[in-house]
Design brief:
Largest sheet: 5 strands, antiparallel
Structural class: alpha+beta
Distance between the termini: 13 Å
Helix content: 10-25%
Radius of gyration: 24 Å
Strand content: 25-35%
Number of strands: 13
Strand order of the largest sheet: 1-3-8-5-13
Shape: globular
């Protein structure tokens, strides 16, 4: 009679572990911008991380829209083997000043298109790198609405903006949080390295020294989920062993 409670305990533990994994899975599937934050007024190098969520179709195009309410004077793409980047500009209603010069247009959209034999297949992800700046000094975040196109014609629109106090939307737009610059001159840089080469649009005379810094959020989240699953399974194994020892002592 003791075996029934033991089986029930194990079943509950395994169900809980499966639920944790199922709930954690969607958090890793969004199109995101990494690192997730940068300094106001500075330059930054960011990666748009694009996972392929389909079981049968491959990703062949990514469109990223840059907000024109806070236009960026310098935008550069890093070459990605097998992909072609196209940069589109829009005229600004009000010119912005960068290093003492007026800038009348800014990049409004970048489209990466896969070559014939290059795709992001199911179970894979791609990273699309940009050098941006100067970032706005009067904003807390920048929202980059993105469209992901699959080779079967499906288009996923990552354009929903998160609202304070509300659950995360199903297709959140990649969002870069902006923080106060560490230095007093307003030109703090989140990551520093030479500006990326390749297709670019730079309206200022000074290119940023940018770098590549990856967010550890995804890794930390993954390790946390794995730890929870291992803990649940370990508890189940411990309960099974204790019940077996008790059963043996009783006999």
């Amino acid at each position: 009679m003791r075996s029934l409670p033991v089986r029930r305990t194990a079943a509950v533990a395994l169900t809980a572990a499966a639920s944790v994994v199922a709930l954690a899975g969607p958090a890793f599937a969004h199109v995101t911008v990494n690192p997730g934050s940068a300094a106001q007024g500075g330059y930054a190098t960011v990666n748009f991380q694009v996972p392929d969520e389909s079981d049968t179709a491959s990703t062949v195009k990514l469109e990223v829209n840059l907000p024109l309410d806070h236009p960026l004077a310098s935008v550069r793409t890093m070459p990605m083997p097998g992909w072609t980047a196209t940069v589109e500009k829009s005229k600004l209603d009000k010119p912005i000043k960068v290093h003492g010069s007026d800038v009348n247009e800014a990049v409004s959209k970048i489209t990466w298109t896969a070559d014939a034999n290059t795709k992001i297949a199911p179970g894979q992800f791609g990273e699309f790198k940009l050098s941006l700046g100067p970032l706005p000094a009067d904003a807390d975040s920048m929202v980059f609405k993105a469209l992901q196109t699959y080779d079967n014609g499906d288009v996923v629109r990552w354009i929903d903006e998160a609202q304070a106090g509300q659950p995360e939307p199903a297709h959140p737009a990649p969002t870069l949080k902006l923080t106060k610059a560490a230095s007093g001159d307003g030109h703090g840089v989140t990551a520093s390295a030479s500006p990326a080469a390749g297709a670019h649009a730079d309206s200022s005379d000074q290119a940023a020294s940018n770098g590549d810094a990856k967010s550890g959020d995804g890794t930390a989240r993954t390790l946390g989920v794995v730890g929870i699953v291992v803990g649940v399974i370990g508890t189940a194994v411990g309960v099974l062993g204790l019940r077996r020892r008790n059963s043996g002592s009783a006999s």
